Amino acid sequence: MKLADRIYLVGSGIQGFGLTDDYDCHVYLIDGGDELAVVDAGAGLGVPQIVQNIREHGFEPGRVRHLLLTHAHGDHAGGAARMRAALGGPRVYIHADCAPFLREGDERAISLTDARRAGAYPNDYHFEPCGVDVELREGQAVTVGDLQLETIATPGHSRGHVSYRMKHDGRTILFGGDLVFFGGKILLQNTWDCDLRAHLDSLIKLRGAAIDVLLPGHLTFSLKNGQRHIDAALKIVDGLLVPPNFL
Predict the structure, then answer these.
(1) φ and ψ at 224, to 5 degrees?
(2) Do residues 213 and 173 make contact, with C-beta atoms less than 8 angstroms apart?
(3) What are phi and psi of 236, to 5 degrees?
(4) pTM
(5) Are 75 and 47 spatial neighbours (Cβ–Cβ below 8 Å)?
(6) Are 233 and 182 spatial neighbours (Cβ–Cβ below 8 Å)?
(7) Which domains does the chain have, with CATH numbers?
(8) 77-113 tens-digit pLDDT
């Protein structure tokens, strides 16, 4: 599904558009010209269909040189090892704070143990470890062909959560992971590393960011005036309240 010039939706689960496996987050493809990038990997079971979707948009999967992860939860990073293998070994990027979780396949650190117990994942689902090539920090730039993405540290939903800001054709695009969703909703969970104060501070960081296109990890996206969804959340925060959970 082509969303905008240079951007495609190639994976999406039950909390989205049902393109691939039910447990997948939104998976985005970025066309950098002479190379490609994928943002988030899904849970893993949908990797073959994600790769097929890349092909159906006319791209050779082997041109994907970068796999950018927003955070280490299973629905976003659980497919990283399989995706890396299927795409011929792109560089894997994740924030330094959660890089060890991905390298070690640490199911407790990403709260998968608790999520399985709560019924959020099947009992036989396991998180596969994956090597990390780049441990991201605040403000770090990632170059994808003739495009550049800026890393924005946006913890709160989880430890080491990041968003990626890209400017292209006069528009500012935010790949927001699980930071904020359509209508200003957020996703707080009863997990060890979900931090309300950090989450609200991450939203405040994007005040006045003039985001045109908001591409979150679930639900619908906003291809015009994406900042209004961030501002909707901030209006509630400014009233000393907490934006609603999307679940």
Answers:
(1) -150, 135
(2) yes
(3) -70, -45
(4) 0.98
(5) no
(6) no
(7) 2-238 (3.60.15.10)
(8) 999 999 999 999 999 999 999 999 999 999 999 999 9
